[in-house]
Amino acid sequence: MQLFEQAGVPYVLMGGLAVRAYGIPRPTYDVDFTVAVERSRLPGIYHAVQALGYTVPEQYASGWVDRVAGMPVVKIRLDLEDRGIDVDVFLAESTYQREVLRRRVQQEFEGRPVWFVSPEDLILMKLVAHRPRDLADVADVLFTQGQLDEAYLRRWAKELGVLEELERVLGE
């Protein structure tokens, strides 16, 4: 987060850490971001994270960009004494991902301000990922958040191809 802020790169924290902010906390072993950065700036980002002790897998360092749920992503890793932490960095290249950054919410996290995905966008991303853990996270966020922007949820769920699943979870 500090790296993105220092580089002037808009970011949003999502995934399991965002579930801690909006739902029922659960263990998570990776960190997920969406960032607004041009691909041409990735080598500079890689150099900066390596200076902080992270590693960049060779395929990403050589310019490859993966896709997860249709979204471009690169990965970095922080190796600690007893385990590693994977960091997935999604590149905000779609209209929806740019909207996610526009709607981000700043909250306190471990004593400092951090930009989080909105609860609505967290739900949408979890529905797109559609793993059992993600669907449990959606239920937790819906349970703890109460009033959400359902018009926004439905609009983007339709665009993302998860409207039927959204209607199912909202009806439960």
Could you characterize the architecture of this molecule?
The protein is of the alpha+beta class. The chain has a single domain, classed as Beta Polymerase, domain 2 (2-Layer Sandwich), CATH 3.30.460.40. 46% of the residues lie in helices and 24% in strands. It has 9 helices and 8 strands. Strands 1, 2, 3, 4, 5 and 6 form a 6-stranded mixed β-sheet that branches. A hairpin with a 2-residue loop joins strand 7 and strand 8. Helix 8 runs antiparallel to helix 9.
Indicate the topology.
Elements (H helix, E strand, L loop, with lengths): L1 H5 L4 E4 L1 H7 L7 E6 L6 H10 L2 E2 L2 H4 L4 E3 L2 E9 L4 E8 L3 H8 L2 E5 L2 E5 L2 H11 L2 H14 L4 H11 L2 H9 L1
Parallel strand pairs: 2-6
Antiparallel strand pairs: 1-2, 3-5, 4-5, 5-6, 7-8
Helix pairs in contact: 6-7, 6-8, 8-9
